[in-house]
TrEMBL record:
It is a single-pass membrane protein. Pfam families: ExbD (PF02472). The chain crosses the membrane at residues 20-41. Part of the Tol-Pal system, which plays a role in outer membrane invagination during cell division and is important for maintaining outer membrane integrity. Signal peptide: none annotated. Keywords: Cell cycle, Cell division, Cell inner membrane, Cell membrane, Membrane, Transmembrane, Transmembrane helix. The keyword Lyase does not apply. Gene3D superfamilies: 3.30.420.270. Its main location: membrane. It is found in: Cell inner membrane; Cell membrane. The Tol-Pal system is composed of five core proteins: the inner membrane proteins TolA, TolQ and TolR, the periplasmic protein TolB and the outer membrane protein Pal. They form a network linking the inner and outer membranes and the peptidoglycan layer. Belongs to the ExbD/TolR family. This is Tol-Pal system protein TolR.
């Protein structure tokens, strides 16, 4: 041993860094999975909505009813039974005046549309009412007719 040097194994210096390559790989795989499955989750499903018997709304004042017929014409009923044909601009003007006179909170406005009415016309009526200052709009419907055999 006199002429040969004894070699000691060198200690490697420890790294204080985190190896992020496996984490990046996992993240990219998850990203691809989510990108592929996300469009599949937003598909529409045909559902049959439940039917219910709802209670009627107790109103202190006569509500304002805006009707839309199957041809898309607007009708305004300020008092029960008095339907008057109006244009879109006239509807906006009259409702705007009623909102200013009565206030937003006290005014009850409902939209009644035929089942065969154009859906876009109903939304147009809602937009006119919103632009006139009405905050809440109710949609009217007929109560469900049940046969006595059930």
């Amino acid at each position: 041993m006199s002429g040969t040097a004894i070699r000691r194994p060198r200690k490697r210096k420890l790294k204080a860094e985190i190896n992020v390559v496996p984490y990046i790989d996992v993240m990219l795989v998850l990203l691809i999975i989510f990108m592929v499955t996300a469009p599949l989750l937003s598909l529409g499903v045909d559902v049959e909505l439940p039917k219910s018997n709802v209670k009627s709304i107790d109103a202190k004042n006569d509500p304002i009813v805006v009707s839309v017929d199957k041809d898309g014409h607007y009708f305004l009923a300020l008092k029960a039974g008095n339907n008057e044909a109006v244009s879109r601009d006239t509807l906006a003007t009259k409702i705007g005046a009623l909102v200013k006179q009565n206030g937003k909170d006290k005014l009850q406005v409902f939209i009644a549309a035929e089942g065969t009415a154009n859906y876009q016309k109903v939304f147009d009526a809602m937009k006119v009412l919103q632009d006139a200052g009405v905050e809440k709009v109710g949609l009217m419907s007929q109560p469900e007719q049940r046969s006595r055999a059930q």
